[in-house]
């Protein structure tokens, strides 16, 4: 089976646990070069493709710590270009007999790198820095630095405090830089990464969503064979809609999309998604109303993790039942003389690259903050095999793909909505009444954001229903009712987020509309917490 790294020039990024490792991957992709992250402990014999170049990431470790991670030394004999970033530089120096020591001044923040002129009379700068001028601003984050460079290396850049801020091997394409080119605080960092992957590694700029579509459709057809059928969990969110459209292009009506109404969707969501997919996109979608089942299982439950697990498990039960129904219907038709249909062998999931990165980090998955309903054990003992066409993509790549697949812009730009839905936005027990209150408040909030033309400026906005009551006065009478919290965030990747600063008049209008139109609510608050220390959702 052709894998993506067999089809596109690929940069291998070895992850030593830096908080920026995934950004290196992103920057490569922004240059239209496919890059894949693997744990730094990966042995070369387990890498089944030949990378065009290797990048070693930063790390919280020091190379001389007893338990610090080290790369397979074989990478230096592969003959492909290597770039070490921060710890990556220290690691290659450590492996090649240079010396790394704690520096007197930890350097955390901006620095100016001076680019060295190399050679005699016709001195020039190294290929890594060509075209970048004599000096550039960069971002540093380190407590160790090189005190002696390894033999056979020369300096190509230095700062006031780091004489070995950038090194190159005298004869091989091996480089190390102390600064972080992958963060936006290094304004020309992306160009440095471009110099490395395009000019030094010679990668072709083939990683585009146009190329991806054709290759992925061919791959899906090969996986499913001539008769195999696929069911897919489709929520109306960006990821599953794009995945569904791709499946539909690949295998047509052998793909069965299923949306589950779990009783905790947004106002009119099931109806809207049904219309969007069936009418606008031509994907055959079945909406299964399982709201009674979900709400009865959620009765009286307040604990966030318990809510998430109940919903995750109930999704599984519903999908299994639906797959069985589809097969039973086909068997019945066959009895009546219809041609045999293939088995429902596959389950489509809209898993994205960030979910995968989280689980492949060499430090292992991070502490469980919250159990995302579709990650970590969905349908574990199920006979259906998984098919995940977006597994290698970031969210913005999925959106680009969606646009190419002619998915309408409002759908492509939709804010994410979590599978456990309003159940994790109702802080107390979930009841039909509480769901109805939150649906109305949330609907007004989003409507006003759209009217103000701010929807696309905000990454995600939603209302939360608090389980507390407050005193108010309406029409001269005392009220004692619940409180709505409004949340809106801006973020690139949802790993960190900032709260959004609304113009005050918009908040005023939203507050007045919700308290006037939604009975049961007499007070509105606005959430001014960033992530961290908060998370995007309240539960
Ligand atoms: N109500 C639902 N019915 C069927 N499948 C669902 C439902 N909610 C979530 N899922 C499944 O869970 C997956 C993960 O949900 P997630 O919210 O991360 O993605 P999405 O809904 O496709 O996109 P977005 O992140 O934009 O909301 C979805 O891709 C879909 O396969
Ligand atoms: O499909 C999903 N199933 C879940 O169980 C889930 N929990 C959080 N989210 C979404 O993930 C993003 C980050 O949210 P947190 O900061 O709350 O973890 C935000 O976009 C959240 O809406 C989920 N999505
Ligand atoms: N960001 C990094 O890679 C830091 C590397 C190493 N831990 C240091 O402090 O120098
Ligand atoms: Mg969703």
From TrEMBL:
SUPFAM superfamilies: Adenine nucleotide alpha hydrolases-like, Class I glutamine amidotransferase-like, GMP synthetase C-terminal dimerisation domain. It comes from the Eukaryota. Pathway: Purine metabolism; GMP biosynthesis; GMP from XMP (L-Gln route): step 1/1. Its EC number is 6.3.5.2. This is GMP synthase [glutamine-hydrolyzing]. The keyword Manganese does not apply. Keywords: ATP-binding, Glutamine amidotransferase, GMP biosynthesis, Ligase, Nucleotide-binding, Purine biosynthesis. Residues 207-414 form the GMPS ATP-PPase domain. One of its GO terms (molecular function) is ATP binding. Catalyzes the conversion of xanthine monophosphate (XMP) to GMP in the presence of glutamine and ATP through an adenyl-XMP intermediate. One of its GO terms (cellular component) is cytosol.
């Amino acid at each position: 089976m052709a894998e993506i790294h067999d089809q596109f020039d690929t940069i291998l990024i070895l992850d030593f646990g830096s908080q920026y490792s995934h950004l290196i991957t992103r920057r490569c992709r922004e240059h239209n070069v496919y890059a894949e992250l693997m744990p730094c402990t990966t042995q070369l014999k387990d890498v089944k493709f030949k990378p065009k170049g290797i990048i070693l990431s930063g790390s919280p470790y020091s190379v001389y710590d007893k338990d610090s991670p080290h790369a397979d030394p074989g990478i230096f004999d592969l003959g492909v270009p290597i770039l070490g970033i921060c710890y990556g530089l220290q690691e290659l120096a450590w492996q090649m007999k240079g010396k790394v020591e704690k520096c007197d001044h930890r350097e955390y923040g901006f620095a100016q790198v001076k680019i060295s002129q190399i050679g005699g009379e016709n001195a020039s700068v190294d290929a890594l820095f060509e075209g970048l001028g004599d000096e550039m601003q960069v971002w540093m984050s380190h407590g160790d630095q090189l005190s002696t460079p390894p033999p056979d290396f020369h300096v190509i850049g230095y700062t006031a405090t780091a004489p070995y801020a950038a090194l190159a091997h005298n004869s091989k394409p091996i480089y190390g830089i102390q600064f972080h080119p992958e963060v936006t605080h290094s304004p020309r960092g992306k160009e440095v990464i471009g110099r490395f992957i395009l000019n030094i590694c010679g990668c072709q700029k083939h990683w585009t969503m146009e190329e991806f579509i054709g290759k992925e459709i061919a791959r899906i057809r090969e996986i499913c064979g001539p008769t195999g059928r696929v069911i897919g969990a489709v929520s109306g969110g960006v990821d599953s809609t794009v995945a569904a459209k791709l499946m539909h292009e690949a295998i047509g009506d052998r793909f069965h999309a299923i949306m589950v109404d779990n009783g905790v969707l947004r106002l009119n969501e099931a109806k809207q998604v049904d219309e969007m997919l069936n009418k606008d996109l031509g994907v055959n979608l079945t909406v299964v109303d399982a709201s009674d089942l979900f709400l009865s299982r959620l009765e009286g439950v307040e604990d966030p993790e318990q809510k998430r697990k109940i919903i995750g498990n109930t999704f599984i039960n519903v999908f299994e039942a639906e797959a069985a129904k589809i097969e039973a219907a086909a068997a019945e038709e066959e009895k009546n003389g219809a041609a045999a249909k293939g088995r429902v062998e596959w389950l489509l999931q809209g898993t994205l690259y960030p979910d995968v990165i989280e689980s492949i980090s060499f430090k292992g998955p991070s502490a469980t903050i919250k159990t995302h309903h579709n990650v970590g054990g969905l349908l574990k003992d199920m006979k259906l095999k998984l098919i995940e066409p977006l597994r290698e993509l970031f969210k913005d790549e999925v959106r680009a793909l969606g646009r190419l697949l002619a998915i309408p812009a409002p759908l492509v730009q939709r804010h994410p909505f979590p599978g456990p839905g309003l159940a994790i936005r109702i802080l107390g027990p979930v009841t039909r009444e509480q769901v109805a209150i939150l649906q109305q408040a949330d609907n007004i909030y989003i409507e006003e954001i759209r009217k103000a033309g701010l929807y696309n400026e905000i990454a995600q906005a939603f209302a939360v229903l608090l389980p507390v009551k407050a005193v108010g006065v309406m029409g001269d009478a005392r009220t004692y009712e619940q409180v709505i919290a409004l949340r809106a965030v801006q973020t690139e990747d949802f790993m960190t987020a900032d709260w959004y600063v609304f113009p005050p008049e918009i908040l005023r209008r939203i507050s007045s509309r919700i308290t006037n139109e939604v009975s049961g609510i007499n007070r509105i608050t606005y959430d001014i917490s960033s992530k961290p220390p908060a998370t995007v959702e309240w539960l």
